[in-house]
């Protein structure tokens, strides 16, 4: 389906459910399956039960998400996979489509007369037994409810001795069906959890405690942000898995496994967090939250009954010799990826893991300038290539993966965009060629000792004196200031302006003038950052970018780009994962244990989180481009997920490989050539640089409508 068609379909599903199963509380009012049979009849009437005939997996998964939002256990994926398995059997297919045959699927080892843990048994007519390479369909002749977490209750069902239909579609078809069943359960659980998160955010804006809305307390708002981030990443991963299946990609089952691996625990985590925010208001069954809680946790628990022969994510990655599935960015972008990989290969041989100084990489800079790679994102009218956002992302990913630092590209992306939009024609003529040359060493003059990332309250002052400005103040943590020639400097030019965003002006100026001093500090990573001091430092007005007191627009233009760059940590972690897998494959059992081991479970979790970060980075880049520098949700969400992952991944490598992973690059035969210990040290900077992830959570909270 096209996006518009899928949206219309989703609205139609909501309309049917509002009449037939109007709210999550309906889950507690249907002990005999009457309401569920009514929903099933409506599903047949409107063609939901015939989606498999059109290979409309996207519609089936979308519908399951909407079913989850009202805690409705209609087993739509069971119908979908059954229809795929019985294709060519006209009578069965017709019965599935018109709703006269209402199947539930059970994965079993033997063809037994009874089946346990059956969902929607009160409305179903048949059980489809999946075992090895065989499918057996039997009629339900008895239902015994088994009350517990699930509502409507699961059941033990008795099956007719006669076989309605039997076939041997093969092990691959059975495994594919099981993968889709797992995807359906995850999609429904995510739908339920996401709805509860929405309830909790609304509650946090309305519920007042201690004189203010509870959403103003960071403990509450950050919990809501984490839940919303998990749900957005889960939906993106599920969507990516659906696209992989519809495109017929060979590794689509791995895409499904990654989606389920991340989304299932994320749904449980988000549900608990939302329940904590709702507190007593969401604890009693007059509210929808308890029924959604049952839906989330019941669906996730059913996943354990559907195991795949290939094993978990780690088992697949270790055995296959391949890495994570690529995110398809379109034919044009993928052609460009081939070009960039060929370009990067010239410089990637024996490239060091640790880059503390780029000055020895002059050949890379010159080659990138020659090909116009630095100014990919610039309009052609300003000397750029006018590349699509997908092409820009490809370039950033490939260089990050190959560990080829190109700070000149950061200057072009961050400063170039701001100068193009806010600089005068004279400034564009002056600065853009310098930046495009790649010979523009600069640092960001943003953070200050007392304010950190709170740029709206910066104190470094700039006072006008004729055609100059006199600057006094101190900036902190200026990475690259030890070798910079320029500073992108944010100052306060109106101390009486109404804050937070007024009274700020931005300059781009040289620092080789009286009144400037830098003091070096060595970071945990070994990198040099500086405290820089401005003492009656004079800046000509011609170096002012944008309007006087209008600097906040200029800052946000550059910050949006910076956050996307920081979030692209995901590409670096992808390289770390490939390095880790390469080491594990040398001795899988000895290094990571047998399938099911704690180390393999850890690798599965990290791989799924990485894929989630990658799809959010993709969303953030697209949103930033389409929203004119925006991406108010996606960009900070991407950073939250990706940078936390770098910490956890590097620390996990220590547990997987032991003390050897704590050795540096210069020691022979170190796992990952020292990349694990270096990135463990670097990870703190990734989390706090460009605005700590706590600040990013505040940004997301505002975008979600939570109070300050």
Automatic annotation (TrEMBL):
| Domain called Acyl-CoA oxidase/dehydrogenase middle: residue spans | 445-536
Extract the coiled-coil ranges from the record: none
What sequence ranges are listed for the domain Acyl-CoA dehydrogenase/oxidase N-terminal? 331-438
Which InterPro entries does UniProt cross-reference here? Acyl-CoA_Oxase/DH_mid-dom (IPR006091), Acyl-CoA_Oxase/DH_mid-dom_sf (IPR046373), AcylCo_DH-like_C (IPR036250), AcylCo_DH/oxidase_C (IPR009075), AcylCoA_DH/ox_N (IPR013786), AcylCoA_DH/ox_N_sf (IPR037069), AcylCoA_DH/oxidase_NM_dom_sf (IPR009100), Mycobact_Acyl-CoA_DH (IPR052161)
Which keywords does this Swiss-Prot/TrEMBL entry list?
Answer: FAD, Flavoprotein, Oxidoreductase
**Domain Acyl-CoA dehydrogenase/oxidase C-terminal residue range list:** 176-297, 549-704
Cofactor(s) this protein cannot do without: FAD
Family that this chain belongs to:
Belongs to the acyl-CoA dehydrogenase family.
Q: What is this protein called?
A: Alkylation response protein AidB-like acyl-CoA dehydrogenase
Organism equals Catenuloplanes nepalensis
């Amino acid at each position: 389906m096209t996006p518009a068609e899928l949206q219309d379909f989703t609205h139609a599903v909501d309309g049917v459910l509002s009449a037939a199963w109007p709210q999550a509380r309906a889950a507690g009012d249907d002990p005999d399956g009457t309401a569920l049979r009514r929903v099933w009849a409506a599903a047949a009437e409107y063609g939901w039960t015939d989606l498999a005939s059109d290979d409309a997996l996207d519609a089936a998964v979308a519908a399951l998400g909407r079913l989850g939002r009202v805690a409705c256990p209609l087993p739509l994926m069971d119908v979908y996979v059954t229809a795929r398995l019985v294709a060519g059997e006209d009578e069965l297919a017709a019965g599935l489509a018109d709703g006269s045959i209402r199947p539930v699927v059970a994965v079993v080892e033997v063809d037994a007369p009874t089946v346990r843990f059956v969902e929607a048994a009160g409305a179903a007519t048949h059980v489809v037994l999946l075992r090895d390479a065989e499918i057996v369909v039997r009629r339900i002749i008895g239902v015994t409810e088994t009350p517990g977490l699930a509502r409507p209750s699961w059941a033990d069902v008795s099956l007719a001795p006669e076989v309605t239909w039997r076939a041997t579609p093969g092990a691959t078809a059975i495994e594919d069906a099981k993968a889709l069943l797992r995807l359906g359960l995850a999609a429904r659980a995510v739908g339920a959890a996401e709805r509860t998160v929405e309830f909790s955010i609304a509650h946090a804006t309305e519920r007042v405690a201690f004189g203010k809305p509870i959403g103003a307390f960071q403990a509450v708002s950050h919990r809501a942000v984490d839940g919303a981030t998990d749900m957005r990443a889960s939906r993106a991963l599920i969507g990516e898995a659906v696209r992989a299946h519809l495109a017929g990609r060979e590794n689509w089952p791995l895409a499904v496994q990654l989606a389920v691996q991340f989304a299932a625990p994320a749904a449980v985590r988000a549900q608990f967090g939302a329940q904590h925010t709702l507190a007593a208001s969401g604890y009693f069954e007059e509210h929808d939250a308890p029924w959604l809680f049952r839906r989330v946790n019941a669906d996730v628990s059913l996943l354990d009954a559907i195991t795949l022969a290939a094993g978990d994510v780690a088992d697949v990655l270790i055995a296959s010799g391949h890495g994570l599935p690529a995110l398809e960015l379109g034919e044009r972008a993928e052609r460009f990826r081939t070009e960039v990989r060929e370009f990067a290969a010239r410089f990637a041989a024996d490239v060091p893991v640790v880059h503390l100084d780029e000055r020895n990489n002059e050949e890379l800079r010159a080659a990138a300038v020659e090909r116009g790679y630095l100014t990919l994102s610039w309009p052609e009218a300003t000397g750029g290539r006018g590349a699509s956002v997908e092409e820009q992302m490809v370039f950033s990913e490939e260089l990050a993966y190959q560990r080829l630092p190109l700070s000149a590209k950061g200057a072009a992306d961050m400063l170039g965009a701001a100068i193009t939009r806010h600089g005068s024609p004279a400034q564009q003529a002056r600065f853009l060629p310098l930046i495009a040359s790649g010979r523009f060493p600069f640092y960001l003059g943003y953070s200050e000792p007392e304010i950190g990332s709170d740029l709206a309250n910066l104190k470094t002052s700039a006072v006008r004196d004729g055609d100059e400005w006199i600057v006094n103040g101190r900036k902190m943590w200026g990475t690259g200031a030890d070798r910079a020639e320029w500073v992108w400097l944010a100052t306060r030019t109106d101390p009486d302006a109404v804050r937070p965003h007024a009274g700020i002006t931005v300059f781009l100026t040289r620092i080789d003038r009286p009144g400037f001093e830098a003091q070096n500090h060595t970071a945990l990573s070994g990198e040099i950052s500086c405290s820089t001091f401005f003492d009656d430092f004079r800046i000509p007005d011609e170096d002012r970018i944008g309007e006087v007191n209008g600097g906040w627009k200029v800052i946000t233009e550059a910050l949006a780009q910076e956050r996307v760059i920081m979030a692209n940590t995901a590409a670096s972690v992808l390289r770390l994962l490939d390095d880790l897998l390469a080491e594990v494959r040398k001795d899988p059992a000895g290094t990571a244990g047998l399938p099911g081991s704690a180390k393999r479970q850890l690798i599965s979790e990290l791989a799924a989180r990485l894929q989630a970060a990658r799809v959010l980075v993709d969303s953030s880049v697209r949103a930033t481009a389409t929203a004119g520098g925006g991406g108010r949700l996606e960009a900070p969400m991407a950073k939250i997920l990706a940078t936390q992952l770098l910490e956890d991944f590097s620390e996990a490598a220590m547990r997987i490989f032991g003390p050897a992973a704590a050795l540096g690059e210069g020691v022979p035969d170190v796992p990952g050539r020292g990349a694990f210990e270096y990135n463990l040290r670097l990870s703190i900077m990734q989390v706090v640089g460009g605005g700590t992830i706590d600040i990013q959570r505040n940004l997301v909270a505002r975008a979600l409508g939570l109070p300050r």
